[in-house]
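Example record

The entry below shows one chain as it appears in the dataset: sequence first, then structure tokens.
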Amino acid sequence: MTRVSWRVLGGTAVATAAAVAAGAAIAALVLSPASPQALETPSAISSAPVGSQPFDDARSVTVEFALGGATTLASPGDGRVTSFTCAAGGTITSGDSALSIDGAPILTLATRIPLWRDLVEEDTGDDVRAVQQELSRLGEPITVDGVLGRETLDALERRFRDLGDRAELDGVAASRILWIPAASVAVDECDAGTGATVTAGDPLAVLAAGLTSASAELPEDLVPGQRVLVVDGERLPLGTDGAVTDTAALSALTSSSLVREAIAGEATSFTTTAELTDPIEIAVVPPSAVVAISGATGCVVVDGSARPVDIVGSQLGQTLVRFGDGENLPESVTLHPSESTTCG
């Protein structure tokens, strides 16, 4: 009987396995790419998307102001003061009631002309028009025509009703209207208190001197557009030269905390913020996309063509630019335009 040598067979099997493994390795080397796909150099990015955001161009500004003389608040009628919400440093506001005489609420109105007479229906005059103008400013839907009609009387009835007086009106008694020189006034000192007996014309309080002018020193590199001054949360209109000329705005400044703090410190200026009345939409691009920079202008390349832009700022590593008025924002810009690019 022939004896099979397992040693020989074993060696042959090992050799065969080695040959197969070597063949597989060679095939893998031949058929596999030279390097893993994940390690290949990515294709160069040539453009970047254009983002957009609202922009109010808020700037810190110094506001210089001038004060007029103090005003005495006078009683409109005779009787006993049954309520007077007066406090030094406080405010009195048009459309409200700070004073009651003989239990009747007195309506405060900031009219251009103080009401100097009792009015009846169909009366006409500048004082009637002044009452109508202030009621309209306060939100009453009336016609300002200088004629005391039912429409104006109904508006006054609504105002008195809100104060707790439901009497129907066939006219306007001057003793029921407390005149103040501005929509909101600051009080320096109180001359009368609850329980006092007063006659028409008696002093009730001394009002803080009102502002006769105010002007903000605006930077030269502002984005074009109408601006407002932000004071105590209110947005007050500014002229293109930085002046505050609106009567209501000057009144609001007079009673603002910033002005009162400045006056208390014997200063004639304060610092606040000026911003665009209506924010504009601006483009957000990478800094490398803006070339041919000169001052606050430059250009970007869109679809192979250079377009001029105004540079309005930077934020979080991005450049904020403004395209021309009426121009649509592009979807993307060239990321690295040639340094020789010009805007034409």
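Notes for this example: The first strand starts at residue 47 and ends at 49. Residues 71-207 form one domain.
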